[in-house]
Design brief:
The chain has about 500 residues and is an alpha+beta fold. The chain has 4 domains: about 10-105, Uridine Diphospho-n-acetylenolpyruvylglucosamine Reductase, domain 2 (2-Layer Sandwich), CATH 3.30.43; about 110-230, Uridine Diphospho-n-acetylenolpyruvylglucosamine Reductase, domain 3; about 235-260 and about 290-340, Alpha-Beta Plaits, CATH 3.30.70; about 345-498, Alpha-Beta Plaits, CATH 3.30.70.2740. The chain has helices spanning about 10-15, 15-25, 35-40, 65-75, 130-135, 155-160, 170, 205-210, 245-255, 270-280, 300-315, 325-335, 340, 360-375, 400-420, 440-445, 445-460, and strands at about 35, 55-60, 80-85, 100-105, 110-115, 120-125, 140, 180-185, 190-195, 220-225, 225-230, 230-240, 260-265, 290-295, 320, 350, 355, 380-385, 390-395.
Length: about 500
């Protein structure tokens, strides 16, 4: 692990390892308790692989009751617990601690019910995102949120991070497609929020839990809504001579009242890498490449495609290709889905940043990223969920070089600070985790943070669930809200936060 500050390791807990293992065996099958070093190695990091730490031990429960017993046991003995799904998170949200029980939900991997009458699916949390669509597609349904990692990421992790994807522009992120969850609190209490209906009485605890990054409870069941597959889906592959032209095109499409199913931008560096990696056939001469997908009835899609084409031409598009078949449309997206692994040939490592900005600030932010790239002498490639202002700069570096890692961290922090400066937010869909933890004071004042921590303490009084994540560690009592805030003011107080 680098110099990243994490909660103090309780040596008394570490010394009790054998006792803890022995106690857990009373209600957990011994084969589901991992404690040897070679067994712990696969769990030392998530997809933010620059940071590594072996947990004290790993527990893989098989039932909700076992989850409850583990949490109750750890709560009574003040043992930290880090929940983990598929481990695909990009912000370090499931990074273990040396004195923690890593609660791996990998055995919760079954779809429990497909309810077509209520258009929903009830699933255990470690079912993959894409598996839900596969379970219903023969009946003409699908699950809309589609992170690039949908083949591997778990639906429980999607809830914990409020994940989005290329189709979030029209259909929303996880929170907009979530109907209910079952969750186990730190004291072992098993409870349910929401259900199979869109609305439920009382406080919106479902909304509170969505995006809580494992700090408030452990998700053991998820109910999501499914949608009818559109009659027609078409995509336009558009090249532009500049990022400014692509950004202006995005703004005008939205301003005209057109809401595409998805709208993505990639810069030239990422387009080239993707072409080399996945043979995507993207325009090689364009400084920016955009995919616009439209769905609906045949007549509706036809009219919208024509409108988008005219708007693109007005904004100096250098090439336009409209998908003629579903296979061609999927090929357009295959390149975008392969963009992140494609960067593996550009450098030994890359750090995928995640921020959100007003669409009108796209060109400005890209210019600032280019300036910072030169400042830190680190190359960067850019991908964007352009329609909702969610950007993903990919900073290239070498994790074996500590100085390179340090510069990358500083570079990434400056990008996110600038996102906040122009009226955006620190994260669009990847969560805060450890990656953006120390930047929370850029976006929130002391009162804001205190309110959030008050909720944390109400549900987890001893701060044992996923400690060290989301909120800055500046002093021992940070959990009590005594967190430094520069200037004591919230930037852009008039801008709504979603």
């Amino acid at each position: 692990m680098t110099s990243l500050k994490m909660p103090k390791v309780e040596k008394s807990i570490v010394s009790m390892k054998d006792t803890i293992v022995s106690d857990l065996k009373k209600f957990i099958n011994s084969k589901n308790i991992l404690s040897h070093k070679d067994e712990l190695k696969p769990y030392e990091t998530d997809a933010l692989s620059a940071y590594r730490q072996e947990p004290l031990l790993v527990v893989l429960p098989e039932t909700v009751e076992e989850v409850s017993e583990v949490l109750k046991y750890c709560n009574e003995r003040k043992i930290k617990v880090v929940p983990r799904g598929a481990g695909t998170g990009l912000s370090g949200g499931s990074l273990p601690l040396a004195d923690c029980v890593l609660l791996s939900m990998g055995k919760f991997n079954k779809i429990l019910e497909v309810d077509y009458k209520n258009r929903c699916v009830v699933s255990q949390p470690c079912v993959t995102n894409l598996a839900i669509t596969h379970a219903v597609q023969e009946k003409g349904f699908y699950y809309a949120p589609d992170p690039s990692s949908q083949m591997a990421c778990s639906i429980g992790g999607n809830v914990a991070e409020n994940s989005g994807g290329v189709h979030s522009l029209k259909y929303g992120a996880t929170t907009n497609n979530l109907l209910g969850i079952e969750v186990v609190l730190m004291d072992g209490t098993i409870t349910k929020f929401g259900g199979k209906t869109m609305d439920s009485e009382g406080y919106d605890f479902l909304g509170l839990m969505t995006g809580s990054e494992g700090l408030l409870g452990v998700i053991t069941e998820v109910t999501v809504k499914i949608l009818k597959t559109p009659e027609v889906v078409k995509a336009a592959l558009i090249g532009f001579p500049s990022i400014d032209d692509a950004g202006n095109c995005v703004s005008e499409i939205i301003a005209k009242g057109i809401i595409p199913a998805g709208m993505e931008i990639m810069d030239k560096a990422l387009t080239k890498a993707t072409n080399d990696f996945a043979k995507s056939g993207y325009p090689t001469d364009a400084e920016a490449m955009m995919i616009v997908e439209l769905d609906g009835t045949e007549k509706e899609v036809g009219e919208l495609i024509n409108k988008v084409q005219k708007i693109a031409e007005k904004n100096n598009s250098s090439s336009i290709k409209i998908s003629k078949t579903n296979e061609e449309r999927l090929k357009f997206w295959a390149g975008r889905k392969a963009a992140f692994p494609a960067c593996g040939v550009l450098a030994p490592d890359y750090l995928c940043m995640d921020g959100s900005i007003p669409r009108s600030k796209l060109a400005e932010v890209l210019k600032e990223i280019d300036r910072l790239s030169k400042k830190y002498d680190l190359p960067v490639a850019n991908a964007f969920h352009a329609g909702d202002g969610n950007l993903h700069p990919l900073i290239m570096f070498d994790a074996n070089d500590k100085e390179s890692l340090r510069k990358t961290e500083e570079f990434g922090a400056e990008i996110l600070k600038y996102c906040v400066k122009v009226g955006g937010a620190l994260t669009g869909e990847h969560g805060v985790g450890i990656e953006k933890r120390e930047l929370m004071c850029e976006a929130f004042n002391n009162t804001d943070i205190q309110q959030q921590l008050t909720i944390k303490v109400a549900l987890d009084p001893n701060s044992l669930l996923n400690p060290g994540k989301v909120y800055p560690i500046l002093r021992k009592c940070a959990e009590e809200g005594r967190v430094h805030v520069h200037g004591g003011k919230t930037k852009f107080p008039d801008i709504p936060r979603f």
